[in-house]
Amino acid sequence: MSSGLAFSRMNNKLVFFSALVLMLLVYGFRQAIFIAPTELTMGNIQRIFYYHVPSAFVAFTCFFANLIASLWYLKSRRLSADAWALATAEVGVIFCTIVLVTGPLWARPVWGIWWTWDARLTSTLLLWLIYVSYLLLRRFSTSGQTPVLAAVLAIFGSVDVVFVYMSIRWFRTQHPQPVMGPGGGGLDPRMGYALLANFIAFAAYGALLVTLRRNLELRRQRIEERHAMGALAGASR
Amino acid sequence: MPLLTLENVSKLFGRFAALRNFSVTADPGRLYGVFGENGAGKSTLLRIIAGLARPTAGTLRFSPAGPRLGYMAHASMLYDELSAMENLRYFASLCGIRDKRRLEGAIASVGLDPSLERRVGDYSQGMRQRLALARAVLHDPELLLLDEPFSNLDPDSAAAISKLMSGWRDAGKTLLVVTHQAAHLQTIADHSWLLRGGELAAQGTGISALSAGAA
Amino acid sequence: MMEHAGEKTVAMQLRPASSSASLVRTTISTLGKDLRLEWRSKDALNAMLFFALLVVVIFSFAFEPTAEEARRITGGLVWVAFLFSSTMALNQSWARELRHQSLDAFRISGAPADALFLGKAIGNFIFVALLEAIVAPLFVVFFNLTIAQGAGALLWVFVLGTWALVVNGAFFAALSLRTRSRELMLPLLLFPISIPALLAMVSATSAILTGEDSPTLGLQFLAVYDIVFTTVCLSLFETVLHAE
User: Quick one: which H or E segment has residue C219?
Assistant: First the structure.
């Protein structure tokens, strides 16, 4: 149980980190929107790229972290592992949603189509579906063993991802495959820099969100525990 | 040397404590009556001992370890679409038992007709109850956990089951019998426990725990 | 601390190690019991058959393809129809276990959990395969298909594809037992996971029906999918069965 002092120390670290994240995001924004040059063929809409790609990176990292946390939970049965699992799943779904929304927003003006069945975007959709079903399972579960069931589903989902990617590449090839990267030749170094800046900013932002969510879950677990102890001692009767 | 030892066993369902620091022992070859109001934790207790539910805290020990368990609950755990023999044949196969006569014996011992082809879904409640009891004992368990075995039985059937139980106890089995109808255990119970609010409120010889708790 | 309570602090010596029921025997027992149950519940059987038939008819009305188009899209339609039918069958099968808590009796008996899973999966497979065997010819009739060659390969697609649906379906049906809206949860969990297999099944079926492509890739994919997920299901089923 954290003492009041330790808690406020933790709080201070988070406040400092949040400020840092905010600065990184602002810096990244400036780079992406104002500093990086306008793309030749696509125009300003291309700037979505600086959000689309880092979001995908954060989403996939979160889902990978969810797999690790789920495996850790199954092995150790520590509730702290489950807190990480829940946090990474939720934040992952959020960023995954951003990818799925920014994709069509970008594709429509540029290629005239809302959706493209390219392997990456479709894999993202599948991953989104799997993790939304994960969150639904957690919500609908009645047993006290929700963490176990969720962890099992996470393993299924992770194994499935490999198949998802392969199946889309092999069985959907008749559709056009526009490259979801910058058009034309190589990447202008200023664009590359803006992308990197936003990668770092989003990674930090993702980490912050996951940490905050996990802390919230830990707090909820502690409250449940306290109630449970009370019930055992007969205090709540 | 007690067959079963529970030390400070607690079971939480969310914030509700079904069992609270429950400590008790059960000796082999004895019949225990388990009494208490609805919601006192009796069924939870049996489920935990049966291994169907995990205690939130506390320890549960068998000595010797790994006794054969027989469990009978409110739900019959039988398949409506099958006949009595078909049901028992399946559950017997799970325990590695293939002897047909043994199954017929088990069914007959609870007062049912083994050759009856009727599907269990058409049985009366009382008949289903008795078949569930047969299922619980067919693999010759050392520890029998019976949750309300007398409900839905007419007085004659109940008396017959009572006699069966005493026979099993005499043969060396340990029985834990949860029931609201303590009268049926009057002559056969060795010991009894009274549960209240998930705790052990009283225990005593015969069915005395029932009245001890009222005091 | 409560974090470890119940999982590590309890000395559990409950399940009798003396159970002499082997994996194969128990699987066969469970399979036999399930098949008998399915056969006895002829009402459910008939209703499901009728449902599958209705799906075919509705698809025939919804899609008015020419013979050429039909061959291209039927692959997809067939498997969508089977996906829904198998979900119904799976829900039915596990609902029977829940009705009188028969699963509890299984857990106490100490019989291997894998056997229960395999028995149920195989039983469901047989049942769904039967359904498919009756419904597939209807598709051929309504969509005027001709299966000139590749009937053997088509059979393999059906076998591997159905197992892919049923093996995961049986697992998630068991998992859904511990949730509210149990019958809704099964498709919610099953469909996303099954999409890769679905893609392969449809691709292979269309390849055979149109003759334009080779179904080999799809078949290999399905085979690998089946092996991998059967293994995953078997490894994790015991955890799910005893999660209470």
Answer: helix C216-241
Q: CB of A92 within 8 A of CB of A62? A: yes
Query: Which residues on adjacent β-strands are paired with residue B62?
Result: B4
A81: Cα separation from own chain's centroid: 17
Residue C219 domain-assigned (yes or no): yes
Task: Evaluate whether residue C4 is within a structural domain.
Answer: no
**pLDDT (tens digit per residue) in C197-221:** 999 999 999 888 887 788 888 999 9
The pTM for the full model equals: 0.87
Classify residue C199 by burial, with Cβ atoms within 10 Å: 0-12, 13-18, 19+: buried
SS3 A143: coil
Search chain C and give the residue with CA nearest B9. Answer: C10
Quick: pLDDT tens for A95-147.
Answer: 999 999 998 888 888 878 888 777 778 889 999 999 999 999 999 988 788 99
Q: How confident is the model at residue C9 (pLDDT cuts 50, 70, 90)?
A: very low
Contact check, Cβ <8 Å, C14/B75: no
ipTM: 0.88
Does the beta carbon of C229 lie under 8 angstroms from any beta carbon of chain A?
yes
Consecutive H or E run containing C59:
helix C42-62
Clarify whether residues B204 and B108 are in a common domain: no
Strand ordering across the sheet containing B4-13: B16-26, B4-13, B57-62
Length of chain C equals 244
In chain B, which ranges are continuous DSSP H helix?
42-50, 84-94, 100-109, 125-137, 155-170, 208-214
3-state secondary structure at position B16: strand
Rounded Cα distance between C81 and C89, Å, is 12
Q: A171 and C244: CB-CB below 8 Å?
A: no
Residue C16, domain member (yes or no) = no
Task: Say how many residues make up chain B.
Answer: 215
Q: Map out the domains of chain A as residue ranges.
A: 4-177+186-233
Residue of A nearest to C184 (CA): A140
CA distances from A101 to A32, A105, A168 (A): 18, 6, 20
